[in-house]
Design brief:
The protein is of the alpha/beta class. The protein is built from twelve helices and 14 strands. The mean pLDDT is about 95.
Length: about 350
């Protein structure tokens, strides 16, 4: 549905150029939700703007529905753009228009007959759950409601693709989650292909089928979300996963934690499960093999595409030798293992 081939973009400034995109290639299949994650300045906005040619790539192909957009005439491009809706972090609603009028705008611009506009806007208001707010102005809406209006407006002309530029970054966690559910619902119901960019791994985990990671304008990793979460290959990706999933050492333990062992205390160990391993099984194996007792202190486990991952803090209790063997066993099973101290 969307294919980027070796897309590069350099912004030229007086004192040199900034390479915002460097040879980026990926394909988004029809009906998929594809997420691009990257830190601030990584090139995410530039990337998504290249997909509808709000930004022209310096080189490379942007193929949407079989057509390379940079090759199109302006009228052909306008037609292709109609197949793509877009939503933004700050909603970009017109403050002088009501909710109804904001949603109707793209249809008015398309010269759709008034009666058809009414039917379509009513449908969209119901879809995003804002029938009651039809005559309100944006200034009277919450952030989540504004984003719902923006989504309805983006869908008005029945696009095949929805582009989302940090669509939930200005929203609190509960509202973020309701907007993400709405996007997923729209994707399932209408088969719309969604390309979204974000700096939050939680967004990727919640709704994406596939993810690409960009850093300094380069695509450094891509794949199915479950695979990336269970087996991240680059440090940048690992850092994104870690930042969305960590556990703190409980205050009481922190107070008594020592840096080195006195021989009779137990290590506090942080285990990061990103594989297909079952933590329970691994714990019973070490108990059986090395006669240790794994006391779970804190845990933060989650699912992405049916794959469990997360972090568990344990006190490994047993003789010093057995405890050491258990720790080696964790490491040899590809579990990221870190001894935080001794209690
Ligand atoms: N119009 C522009 N002119 C000059 N430089 C630009 C322009 N747009 C972006 N850049 C530069 O390109 C790089 C990538 O910017 P971009 O906005 O794509 O990053 P981003 O990943 O969206 O960041 P953020 O998460 O902060 O929104 C940055 O170094 C930025 O300063
Ligand atoms: Mg941006």
């Amino acid at each position: 549905m969307i294919e980027l081939q070796q897309v590069s973009k350099t912004f030229h400034k007086k004192n040199g150029g900034v390479t915002a995109l460097d040879n980026v290639s990926f394909t988004v299949g029809k009906g998929n939700i594809f997420g691009v994650i990257g830190a601030s300045g990584a090139g995410k906005s530039t990337l998504i703007r290249c997909v509808n040619l709000l930004e022209r790539p310096g080189s490379g192909k942007v193929i949407v529905d079989g057509k390379n957009l940079p090759d199109l005439s302006s009228s052909e491009l306008a037609r292709s753009r109609r197949e793509m809706g877009m939503i933004f972090q700050h909603f970009n609603l017109l403050s002088s228009r009501t909710v109804y009028e904001n949603i109707a705008l793209p249809l008015e611009l398309d010269k759709t007959p008034v009666s058809q506009i009414k039917t379509r806007v009513d449908e969209l208001l119901a879809l995003v759950g804002l029938e009651e707010k039809r005559n309100d102005f944006p200034s009277n809406l919450s952030g989540g409601q504004k984003q719902r209006v923006a989504i309805a407006r983006a869908l008005a002309a029945r696009p095949k693709i929805l582009l989302c530029d940090e669509a939930t970054s200005a929203l609190d966690p509960a509202t973020t989650s309701s907007i993400l559910s709405l996007l997923k619902n729209i994707n399932r119901k209408f088969g719309i292909t969604i390309l979204l960019i974000t700096h939050e791994m939680d967004v990727i985990k919640a709704i994406c089928d596939e993810v690409a990671v960009i850093s300094d304008g380069k695509l450094i990793e891509k794949g199915r979300v479950g695979d990336i979460f269970s087996n991240p290959s680059s440090p940048v990706t690992r850092e994104f996963i870690t930042s969305s999933h960590d556990v703190a050492v409980p205050f009481e333990l922190e107070q008594v934690l020592t840096e080195s062992s006195n021989g009779t205390d137990y290590p506090l160990v942080k285990l990061r499960f990103t594989g297909k391993l079952n933590a329970g099984t691994v714990f019973s194996e070490t108990s059986r093999l090395f006669e240790v007792d794994n006391e779970i202190v804190a845990a933060n486990m989650d699912y992405a595409q049916g794959i469990k991952f997360g972090v568990i803090l344990i006190l490994v209790k047993g003789t010093q030798e057995n405890v050491q063997q258990a720790i080696e066993y964790y490491k040899s099973n590809n579990i990221q293992t870190e001894v935080l101290g001794y209690v």
